[in-house]
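Structure record:
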Amino acid sequence: MMVRRTCTVRKIRAAFPPPPSSGPRLSGTRLVTATQAEGESRLHIEGTFDALTVGEIEVAIESVVAAHPQHVALDLARVSLLDSFGVRAIVSLWRRVVSFGGSVTLHHVHGQPLTVVRLFKLDELLASRPVTAA
Protein backbone atom coordinates (compact mmCIF):
# COMPACT_ATOMS: atom_id res chain seq x y z
CA MET A 1 0.00 0.00 0.00
CA MET A 2 1.37 3.35 -1.04
CA VAL A 3 1.17 6.25 1.42
CA ARG A 4 0.70 9.64 -0.16
CA ARG A 5 2.19 12.58 1.68
CA THR A 6 0.97 16.07 1.13
CA CYS A 7 2.73 19.34 1.76
CA THR A 8 0.80 22.36 2.83
CA VAL A 9 1.86 25.94 2.44
CA ARG A 10 2.38 26.16 6.21
CA LYS A 11 4.74 23.18 6.17
CA ILE A 12 6.69 24.65 3.27
CA ARG A 13 6.96 28.06 4.97
CA ALA A 14 8.00 26.37 8.23
CA ALA A 15 10.71 24.41 6.42
CA PHE A 16 12.01 27.51 4.62
CA PRO A 17 11.55 30.51 6.91
CA PRO A 18 12.08 33.95 5.36
CA PRO A 19 15.35 35.73 6.09
CA PRO A 20 15.24 38.48 8.70
CA SER A 21 14.45 41.87 7.25
CA SER A 22 14.48 45.46 8.33
CA GLY A 23 11.20 46.45 6.70
CA PRO A 24 7.47 45.90 7.14
CA ARG A 25 7.18 42.63 5.23
CA LEU A 26 3.88 40.81 5.08
CA SER A 27 5.74 37.49 5.04
CA GLY A 28 8.26 35.67 2.96
CA THR A 29 9.57 37.38 -0.12
CA ARG A 30 7.24 40.26 -0.71
CA LEU A 31 6.72 43.77 0.46
CA VAL A 32 3.67 45.80 -0.44
CA THR A 33 3.48 49.52 0.16
CA ALA A 34 0.58 51.72 -0.82
CA THR A 35 0.66 55.47 -1.21
CA GLN A 36 -2.26 57.73 -1.97
CA ALA A 37 -2.36 61.32 -3.17
CA GLU A 38 -5.08 63.38 -4.87
CA GLY A 39 -7.20 60.54 -6.24
CA GLU A 40 -4.22 58.37 -7.23
CA SER A 41 -3.04 55.27 -5.42
CA ARG A 42 0.27 53.58 -6.06
CA LEU A 43 1.04 50.00 -5.02
CA HIS A 44 4.68 48.91 -4.92
CA ILE A 45 5.04 45.13 -4.88
CA GLU A 46 8.36 43.44 -4.20
CA GLY A 47 9.30 39.79 -4.61
CA THR A 48 6.88 37.27 -6.05
CA PHE A 49 3.27 37.81 -7.12
CA ASP A 50 2.11 34.20 -7.24
CA ALA A 51 -0.20 31.61 -5.68
CA LEU A 52 1.62 31.74 -2.33
CA THR A 53 1.58 35.52 -2.01
CA VAL A 54 -1.55 36.68 -3.80
CA GLY A 55 -3.81 36.37 -0.75
CA GLU A 56 -1.80 38.82 1.29
CA ILE A 57 -1.24 41.17 -1.64
CA GLU A 58 -5.01 41.22 -2.25
CA VAL A 59 -5.44 42.59 1.30
CA ALA A 60 -3.44 45.66 0.25
CA ILE A 61 -5.41 45.85 -3.00
CA GLU A 62 -8.68 45.79 -1.02
CA SER A 63 -7.59 48.76 1.09
CA VAL A 64 -6.72 50.73 -2.05
CA VAL A 65 -9.99 49.90 -3.84
CA ALA A 66 -12.03 50.83 -0.75
CA ALA A 67 -10.86 54.45 -1.18
CA HIS A 68 -12.31 54.57 -4.76
CA PRO A 69 -9.26 56.20 -6.37
CA GLN A 70 -9.51 57.65 -9.86
CA HIS A 71 -6.22 56.02 -10.80
CA VAL A 72 -4.26 53.04 -9.47
CA ALA A 73 -0.63 52.52 -10.48
CA LEU A 74 0.95 49.11 -9.89
CA ASP A 75 4.73 49.36 -9.68
CA LEU A 76 6.21 45.96 -10.53
CA ALA A 77 9.87 47.06 -10.70
CA ARG A 78 10.89 44.64 -7.96
CA VAL A 79 8.62 41.74 -8.88
CA SER A 80 10.67 38.73 -9.94
CA LEU A 81 7.81 36.29 -10.63
CA LEU A 82 4.24 36.76 -11.83
CA ASP A 83 1.93 33.78 -12.33
CA SER A 84 -1.72 33.32 -13.27
CA PHE A 85 -2.85 34.05 -9.70
CA GLY A 86 -1.15 37.44 -9.89
CA VAL A 87 -2.71 38.06 -13.29
CA ARG A 88 -6.14 37.23 -11.84
CA ALA A 89 -5.57 39.73 -9.01
CA ILE A 90 -4.54 42.45 -11.48
CA VAL A 91 -7.58 41.84 -13.71
CA SER A 92 -9.86 41.81 -10.65
CA LEU A 93 -8.36 45.13 -9.52
CA TRP A 94 -8.88 46.58 -13.00
CA ARG A 95 -12.54 45.46 -13.14
CA ARG A 96 -13.32 46.98 -9.75
CA VAL A 97 -11.54 50.28 -10.41
CA VAL A 98 -13.12 50.66 -13.87
CA SER A 99 -16.56 49.99 -12.37
CA PHE A 100 -16.40 53.35 -10.57
CA GLY A 101 -14.77 55.22 -13.44
CA GLY A 102 -11.10 54.80 -12.56
CA SER A 103 -8.08 53.46 -14.42
CA VAL A 104 -5.16 51.13 -13.71
CA THR A 105 -1.63 51.24 -15.10
CA LEU A 106 1.37 48.95 -14.72
CA HIS A 107 4.79 50.52 -14.23
CA HIS A 108 8.35 49.18 -14.55
CA VAL A 109 7.42 45.70 -15.74
CA HIS A 110 10.47 43.66 -16.78
CA GLY A 111 11.82 40.14 -17.13
CA GLN A 112 9.49 37.19 -16.51
CA PRO A 113 6.57 39.42 -15.38
CA LEU A 114 6.81 41.33 -18.69
CA THR A 115 6.60 38.04 -20.60
CA VAL A 116 3.48 37.06 -18.63
CA VAL A 117 1.90 40.50 -19.09
CA ARG A 118 2.39 40.20 -22.85
CA LEU A 119 1.24 36.57 -22.94
CA PHE A 120 -2.04 37.42 -21.18
CA LYS A 121 -2.30 40.66 -23.23
CA LEU A 122 -2.53 42.79 -20.09
CA ASP A 123 -0.45 45.39 -21.89
CA GLU A 124 -3.40 45.85 -24.26
CA LEU A 125 -5.98 45.88 -21.45
CA LEU A 126 -4.04 48.26 -19.22
CA ALA A 127 -1.84 51.19 -20.04
CA SER A 128 1.57 49.63 -19.40
CA ARG A 129 4.94 51.28 -19.10
CA PRO A 130 7.37 48.36 -19.38
CA VAL A 131 11.06 48.58 -18.68
CA THR A 132 12.81 45.89 -20.69
CA ALA A 133 16.32 46.48 -19.34
CA ALA A 134 16.79 45.50 -15.71
Remarks:
- Residues 26-130 form a domain with the Transcription Regulator spoIIAA fold (CATH 3.30.750.24).
- The mean pLDDT is 80.
- The first helix runs from residue 9 to 15.
- DSSP finds five helices and five strands in the chain.
